[in-house]
């Protein structure tokens, strides 16, 4: 079928709204008419080739829409269902079977190569296949072929634009605190970077009962939002000694780095209490490395680890986040700014400038 999609053709290039051809769904896939899609820094990292996604490509990995057609073997969903599309995983490897789909053996294929496990793509232009199964969806389009493995049904009363960020950004932030760290009530936590992921983590830290909750950013407006969502202390990340500023607060039990900036993550690591834990979820520039003193690591029992999607199983954790939203504990409306699909390049620019926190594309006005 003929669809409209935002195609990136070259490193750092514009998203070009163009016609593409979309195949029918294969086994365990569905055809979705996309209603909304969040823009994530991972999409921008792919555009800029910090992630080597083959170009040209249709990106987008926080899609919400309604199912129009079912592929073979799909019996848990029906035509007309509204669904949220999360990241790709095979569902069969050891990590998938052990409730860790973020570390799927096929994750590189879905999330970086942007293809099905067999290397094929459902999207083509002028008869030539292009990358079109990014995160098993490629939802910067009017329609998407999406795998059902990490797809979650949504009630009709939920706003698609507010739900879309749960697929990745909000899931990563909340999951990192509630699942990866399993942060305990009364523990101190520092959130480095107050974008969608960081602010979601602050909301999660408040739910977990962390105290103090320390927010770090270089934008005063972001720090103000952090306070609204539950941060008890705010500090600028561009000051001369972030490490000393954090240590003055008594040291920290947990730290979450969303920036991907080694100097920032290192400052938090140094400020950890003995046996404290630093979780890194930011996409760093190619070659970005942490320089950790091995003796200090041994002597203090500190931990440092990465996390993908906050270690979440989407079908379990996304309904949990929806309940937090319904209970008023996750104010998604404070994070989201809506854009028309054709304004995608402005939405990206506003994200990079810090003008907005979470842009979400509406596929129809």
Q: How would you summarize what this structure contains?
A:
By secondary structure, the protein is α/β, with parallel strands linked by helices. It contains 12 helices and 18 strands.
Question: Could you please describe the fold and organization of this structure?
Answer:
By secondary structure, the protein is of the alpha/beta class. It has two domains: 2-167 and 335-362, Quinone Oxidoreductase, Chain A, domain 1 (Alpha-Beta Complex); 173-308, Rossmann fold (3-Layer(aba) Sandwich), CATH 3.40.50.720. Helices cover 28% and strands 26% of the residues. It is built from twelve helices and 18 strands. It has helices at residues 41-47, 94-97, 107-113, 160-163, 169-180, 196-208, 220-229, 242-248, 262-271, 294-300, 314-326, 344-353, and strands at residues 2-8, 15-22, 29-38, 57-58, 63-70, 82-85, 123-125, 128-129, 143-147, 151-153, 189-192, 213-217, 233-236, 252-257, 272-280, 303-306, 336-340, 358-362. The strands form three sheets. Strands 3, 5, 6, 9, 10, 17 and 18 form a seven-stranded mixed sheet that branches. The protein is globular and about 60 Å long. The relative contact order is 0.15.
